[in-house]
Design goal:
The structure holds 2 protein chains of 2 kinds. Chain A is of the alpha+beta class. Chain A is built from 3 helices and 10 strands. Classes of the chains: A alpha+beta, B alpha+beta. Chain B: It holds the Pfam family ThiS.
């Protein structure tokens, strides 16, 4: 289970733990992870909630393609990518990338690369609900 | 058959189109689909996919394909 889209709130730490329990003990020496969490502010405004639209089918395929590409670039033991869709409230996790490898170098590198590639290529779009109304986020902040 | 067209996010709201179909006659590439849909040239800031793969304006489109248009992605 490498890639997952979830509609409800998820616990990134429980998912990391569950994934790691599936791996043969001693097969990895490094675990790197990134968790993206929803802020209650953006571009100087209060944000009350968020709606995450996606392209069902292409989103999963694009995330699968990215994890396959990461596995070609670095010798990885396991990869886990989880992303929320639908309505999200501040403080809730949006995205999780977890990478297991023999050594820290490839774990750090693959985790960073996957997160940035996801933000550039995976078909998700954020719509923010602010006290002044709703607005689409036009582009991501630089990583 | 037909070419299936899907539109997402702010572009969907702006065009008032979520999903439609068009006949394949006269359609050779992604830019042709956009022109049939809107009457305009495909703007640089509009992204596209053919059969769920990212595609440029010149990417070929055939009968039965699914073509999607969307703004820059903002996930993560």
């Amino acid at each position: 289970m490498t890639v997952r889209l979830v509609e409800g709130e998820f616990d990134p730490w429980a998912l990391l733990q569950a994934e790691q329990r599936r791996l043969p003990p001693g097969s990895f020496g490094a675990t790197a992870c990134f968790v993206g969490t929803m802020r209650d502010f953006n571009q100087g405004d209060e944000v009350e909630s968020l709606f995450l639209e996606h392209y069902p089918g292409m989103t999963e395929r694009e995330l699968e393609r990215l994890t396959a590409e990461a596995r070609q670039c670095w010798p990885l033991v396991a990869v886990l990518v989880v992303h929320r869709v639908g309505h999200i409230r501040p403080g809730e996790p949006i995205a999780l990338v977890g990478v297991w490898s023999a050594h820290r170098r490839e774990a750090f590198k693959a985790c960073r690369w996957l997160m940035e590639a996801l933000k550039q290529r995976a078909p998700f779009w954020k719509k923010e609900v602010t006290p002044h109304g709703t607005r689409w986020v036009e582009k991501n902040t630089p990583g | 058959m037909a070419i299936r067209v899907r539109v997402f996010a702010s572009l969907k709201e702006r065009l008032g189109i979520e999903q439609t179909e068009m006949t394949p006659e006269g359609i050779g590439c992604v830019a042709d689909v956009w022109r049939r849909l809107t009457g305009d040239d495909l703007p640089a800031q509009v992204l596209a996919a053919v059969n769920m793969n990212h595609a440029g304006p010149d990417a070929p489109v055939r009968d039965g394909d699914e073509v999607a248009f969307f703004p820059p992605v903002t996930g993560g």
